């Protein structure tokens, strides 16, 4: 069984994330969404809220594809998380050249830590390349419309959280 791990903070999950998740299901038999516990980032949504959002948003993809998708919070090294969930592949989304520079460094470090885990990069679809959770939160905080960047349930959750 091919197991992939797609890590991130998912604060909040965006249409870009969902695009990568859907496309990653073509590559693996089981996809683990690693939800990073990163206290330094000061997430808007709690860990439980982010896990719930991922589970709710991925249910339809699982139904459509037959690929099991599970949410898995983690606070350890990414390669350790991959080992914990039995992942052979790390799935990473790329939006722009700046993402690649950072990801290139991460792949090098992860390969030194565990060279049995491969990293696969998926380019975000053109309509999702500008979407970043940080920008979505900023737009929402300032009263802007983020419905073009997040699934409807996430839009509602953002509105409720910031009300």
Unreliable segments (pLDDT under 50, ≥5 consecutive)? none
Estimate the global geometry from the Cα principal axes. Answer: globular
Largest sheet: 5 strands, parallel
Top-tier CATH class: Alpha Beta
CATH architecture: 3-Layer(aba) Sandwich
Distance between the termini: 44 Å
Count of β-strands: 5
CATH superfamily: HUPs
Number of domains: 1
Mean pLDDT: 94
- Summing up helix and strand content along with how strands pair, one would put the structural category as alpha/beta
Beta-strand proportion: 15-25%
Description of the structure:
Helix content is 45%, strand content 20%. The chain is an alpha/beta fold and 163 residues long. The chain has a single domain, classed as Rossmann fold, CATH 3.40.50.620. The chain has a five-stranded parallel beta sheet, with helices on both faces. β4, α4 and β5 form a beta-alpha-beta unit. It is globular, with a radius of gyration of 15 Å. The N and C termini lie far apart (44 Å). The mean pLDDT is 94.
Task: Walk me through the topology.
Elements: E1 3-8, H1 15-24, E2 30-36, H2 47-65, E3 68-74, H3 78-85, E4 89-94, H4 97-113, E5 118-123, H5 133-141, H6 152-162
Parallel strand pairs: 1-2, 1-4, 2-3, 4-5
Which keywords apply here?
163 residues, Rossmann fold, alpha/beta, five-stranded parallel β-sheet
Summarize the structure.
With 163 residues, this protein is α/β, with parallel strands linked by helices. It contains six helices and five strands.
């Amino acid at each position: 069984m091919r197991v992939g791990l797609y890590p991130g903070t998912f604060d909040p999950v965006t249409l870009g994330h969902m695009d990568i998740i859907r496309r990653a299901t073509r590559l693996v038999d089981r996809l683990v969404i690693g939800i990073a516990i990163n206290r330094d980032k000061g997430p808007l949504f709690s860990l439980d809220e982010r896990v719930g959002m991922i589970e709710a948003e991925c249910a339809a993809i699982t139904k459509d594809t037959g690929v099991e998708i599970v949410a898995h919070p983690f606070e350890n090294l990414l390669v350790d998380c991959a080992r914990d969930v039995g992942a052979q592949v790390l799935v990473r989304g790329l939006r722009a050249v700046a993402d690649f520079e950072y990801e290139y460094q991460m792949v090098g470090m992860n390969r030194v830590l565990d060279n049995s885990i491969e990293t696969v990069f998926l380019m975000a679809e053109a309509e999702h390349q500008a979407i970043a959770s940080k920008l979505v939160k900023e737009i929402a905080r300032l009263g802007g419309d983020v419905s073009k960047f997040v699934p409807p349930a996430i839009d509602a959750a953002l509105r409720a959280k910031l009300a």
